[in-house]
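Question (not urgent): is this output format expected?
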Amino acid sequence: MTPLEALARAERLAPGARVAVVAPSGPVPEERLTAGLDILRGWGLEPVVAPHVLETHPALGYLAGADRARARDLTEAWCDPTVSAVLCARGGFGAQRMVDLVDWTAIRAAGPKVFVGYSDVTALHEAFAVRAGFATLHGPMVAAATFLSDPRTRESLRTTLFEPEDALTLGLETARALVPGRARGVTLGGCVSLLAADLGTPHGRPSARGGLLLLEDVGEEPYRLDRILTQLLRSGWLDGVAGIGLGSWEECGPYEAVRAVLADRLGGLGVPVLEEMGFGHSPTALTLPLGLPAVLDAETGTLTLEAPALR
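Got this back:
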């Protein structure tokens, strides 16, 4: 099986850039969206809210409107030549329901753009990688509490968007080796439960071989994380992975219990594993590019990109 290759990068943003905000998953609180849009305007961006962002599905209240409407919002925003970036408003659940309704032929034809999100948006990161060949950004969402409350989270995203050459080395001071070593590969990942849920789907990534796999999750108890990681191991999806970086495990139980599972399930792969890097559902969530070559060094606690995330 061919190892992962670097994906196509989007162009960096400049003041005045028009950015679309979409809601591919759960419904968005209007007051938090308003606050997030104000931050984007403060950066000199021109945010445009997609038509169905503030909708709620009439029967399934955990969805931001109908699947086809959410998919259409994403497709139309991406294919709008005046839009330079597509930012997700929040996660929740629902991206898996709409991902196959997106017009990926039109997305590919429009070319790479900045795409930002995390959590449930993992399903879309995987789709952009596999079905379009585009690199994306695992980063905070416009209406997410962390983006609104944490200056370092905002600065990590802002720097990546406007001055990506200043965001080559990533990792909080908390980062430390779970398994020592150093590895090179192409970044991929997100919520581990979403990656496992992609197994067996028609367009699921066949393997993480040659990749630097970045994992985090929220609300999964240790035994459920064990089940998820065991599924990835049994399927062979982790065979040949180059290295692993671990983010936050909010609401997953005491970290020592989570850590024991991570060490047990990942320690036998014989690759470097770096923990507590500071991405995902953590109080400070760094922006990490997906689909680009990088070096993971568990000894120094860093992930270093070989080129800026954006051109």
